[in-house]
Amino acid sequence: MSEFVKKTMMGYKEVPGGHSDPECTHVILTEAEYAKLLRQLSDAEQKARITKSEADKEIREANREADRKAQEAALKANQAIEEWRAALEAERAESAHQRHLNANLLRIAKERANADRGLKPKKERPGYVVVHSEEKEYSFRDGRKRLYKVKLWETIIQSPYSVEFAESVVRKQIEDEMFPEGKEWLIAKIGITGKYNGSYEKMREAMEQNPEDSFYSGNVVIARQQRLKRNFRSKYWEVAIVHTKPLGDVPEDLMPEVKKPVQGT
Fold this sequence. Notes:
Layout: E1 3-8, E2 11-14, E3 26-28, H1 31-116, E4 129-141, E5 147-162, H2 167-178, E6 194-196, H3 200-209, E7 220-222, E8 227-231, E9 236-243
């Protein structure tokens, strides 16, 4: 049985209070107790090593599984990206093909329309002709709802597009060709200098607030007044533009065919 002792000049002396005695400095074990304690320590160390080894193994397996899943997810993501890229490239190629076809169809339609209307040379004429331009009186209301009248100009321009074309197609095509972004406008040839994307009332307010702006001193189209006309007599779509000043000189390539008089009449 173990003894609880204190060290003295003469050796070790048992203390009466056992392991709780404040004078206890040492514990004397029997050989069997000492061996048992060593076994317990060895077992504890072994258990700790096993626990650590198992924990390390689980961590390694978890990391390998995480890496595998990450690689698998990355592979799937890359495959999806490649599929999307291939689909996008195919779509771009198809869109380019369709644009080319549409451009060819529009070119052919324009050349046929020019030939049908006697506009020569048919391959060079833009296909648009000024058929009518007149001064008209329009009524508007100011900010106080007071009615006032102003004289503006309305010009009818015939497009090269047959009335058989759908309205949505013609509207976009005419807009793109008459007012192309970043390019010289077709109707700049007849003196149109700008387009106000709103009503005449709003433009008038803006003009009063910016009297020095040269934009308003030009021949400006009022977008709100612009409209399409499906002329079944001529068989072509027309667009009416309302602008602030009379047209300038109309060049020959925007003039309609001049019919020659029949001989003998």
